[in-house]
Amino acid sequence: MANLPDGGPARGLDDSLLACVIPGVTFADPSPANPLPVTMQQSSHDSRLRTGITALGVVFGDIGTSPLYAVRECFNPSLGVPVTRESTFGVCSLIVWALILIVTLKYIAYILRADDKGEGGVLALLNLARVAVQAAGKSSGFVVTAGLLGAALLFSDGMVTPAISVLSAVEGLGTLSDGLSPAVVPLTVVIVLSLFLVQRQGTRRVGLIFGPVMLIWFATLAVLGIVQIVRHPEILGAISPVYAWNFLYHNGIMSLVVLGAVFLAVTGSESLYADLGHFGLPTIRTAWLFIVLPALTLNYLGQGALLLVEPDARGDVFFRMAPDWALAPLIGLSTLAAIVASQALISGSFSLMRQATMLGFWPRVSIRHTSASAMGQIYVPAINWLLMFGAMGLVIGFGSSSALASVYGLAVSATMLITTLLSYAVARYVWRVHWLLALGITVVLAAIEVAFVGANSLKIGEGGWFSLVIAAVFFALMTTWRRGQQLMAERRAQEVIPLQDFFEVMRIEIPARVPGTAVFLAIDAEGAPVTLMQNFTHNRVVHRSVIILSVVVEPHPRVPVGQRVQVEELSDGFYRVRARYGFMQQPDIPAALALLEQPEVVPQHTTFFVGRTTFLAETAPGMSRWRIRLYGAMARNAASATDFLRLPPDRVMELGTAVEI
């Protein structure tokens, strides 16, 4: 590695997940060849146990709170389903087999195998499928569009989950006393508001109780269910899929409506996939098969057992399972579980935004790291406030979890369908599964999910439109930003001159060589950065040491520290440096330069030159006028490049350029 005189300041390298795209950051061409290794740390038995308990809160918080409202909504009087023995057995059977088919078979056994170097989630799947499809010589347009739509739908889910989870738990107060019912909405608003306000403090302390709370919660679900099943063991017969089939066959269109409520039992399944990189496949599988699935199954069957003898309990069947002395503690525990589920979705939304920005689908946003040691604990203020106002508005506007249930299912079911469609590309081109088998698996899974999407589509007029509107807004923003960035990159590429031509100009004009090191960000690592040309043109000086730095975002979640930087020594004191990051990492330029191991580090003599681009276009190819204006507004409100790259503010010089595309 070449030694660089007058190097830059160094800080400890932080491989936290990152925030956004900036001038000077480029994206490597996707290629499955020579994949980057992922370093895994071996854990002790105790560590694995702690990880498994923590996963109960982070991964299964959302799906774990579904018993609060799933069965109740299946028998909502507005659906017209009478509480009879046949309907109770049918609904319980549908829920149990939804857990088996959607969660166990699709996600646990199939989708979780589609990891992008250990990472999961709809955007990781998008990237994995895009790389595979392009490597096979196919167009990736559908893959990108579907993946972005799935991400947009998940953003809307981040608003609905805190609202419906907390509201359904607090509604238990009405079971204690009818006089407490008017306090449900105000109290829910206070809890939701408090939940979002504490996000800036980080989730580390709260995270310590996530796992134990959910472990107690799942144990409680199991115990409540077992007590009812022991009293009425005939409900165990609902495990047979025959009852589910008979319900669908004999109830016609009404069964399709009920499917929309049955789907509430599997909301949160995407969290299993999104948190794959945090906990790993073995941990998630074990927790699901031995703790979560048994607890949920027992509780749903227990609710069915109660309905067999108390049909009038359908309005608050979950809380009616508890004896009177345990009702107040159960309401408190369910509220804590709802907060855990909401926290997981909020943190997931932060991570989703981080991935979107690194993959080039979102402008840079202000991001704060809330832990110096825990990777991925971040706080994104803009997203936090957006989710907060959205969740509070839903609570106030809809007023009950039953009304919110009509909002909830459509976004999640559509996201699941998109995940299934994208997984075909992975199975076909990454796993090399025969196309007929891959197509067969996709068709079977898609058929089930199309039924759920269709059932939830019936609720568009009752509130399902909200999730579609939010998803459409995010989708428009992401696609507009991506197209604008492509046009800007093409325009900037035309302004870059070969570096050898710049060296020829230097030899002719012989500029003054001033002490210190200048670091210029370059989109095109082979050419002379625009900022270098501007500094030379206006100031007529060149530093003794010049680093042309390119930050390259690889199509992999992480790049090991040992492969972070590549250095090429040029002539006349110039060096070309490439800093490589995965799309789940955050660039830290001073830390990357510290890896060069130069002995003559003089921080006060290092200057970082950053370009600031002014967008002037009124028309652009392939973009309508409103999208041009939208892109311009997004670009103007993007966070500082200095913060994004973790540059020392007192050593940064910005040079402005005007670009018309």
Structural summary, described in words:
With 661 residues, this protein is α/β, with parallel strands linked by helices. The chain folds into two domains: 49-172 and 190-319 and 341-484, Up-down Bundle (Amino acid/polyamine transporter I); 496-659, no CATH class. Helix content is 58%, strand content 10%. The chain is built from 24 helices and eleven strands. The strands form three sheets. Strands 1, 5, 7, 8, 9, 10 and 11 form a seven-stranded mixed sheet that branches. A two-stranded antiparallel sheet has the order 2-3. Strand 8 and strand 9 form a beta hairpin. Helix 4 runs antiparallel to helix 13 (281-309) and helix 5 runs parallel beside helix 17. The model is unreliable at 1-44 and 599-603 (pLDDT under 50).
Q: CATH topology of the largest domain, anyone? A: Amino acid/polyamine transporter I
In the predicted model, the low-confidence regions spanning at least 5 consecutive residues are 1-44, 599-603
How many DSSP-defined strands? 11
- Quickly count the domains: 2
| Shape, principal axes of CA atoms | elongated
Q: Supply the CATH class of the largest domain.
A: Mainly Alpha
The CATH architecture classification of the largest domain is Up-down Bundle
Distance, first to last CA? 39 Å
Rg over CA atoms: 27 Å
Helical fraction equals 55-70%
Quote the beta fraction: 5-15%
Mean pLDDT equals: 82
Q: How many H/I helical runs?
A: 24
Major sheet details = 7 strands, mixed
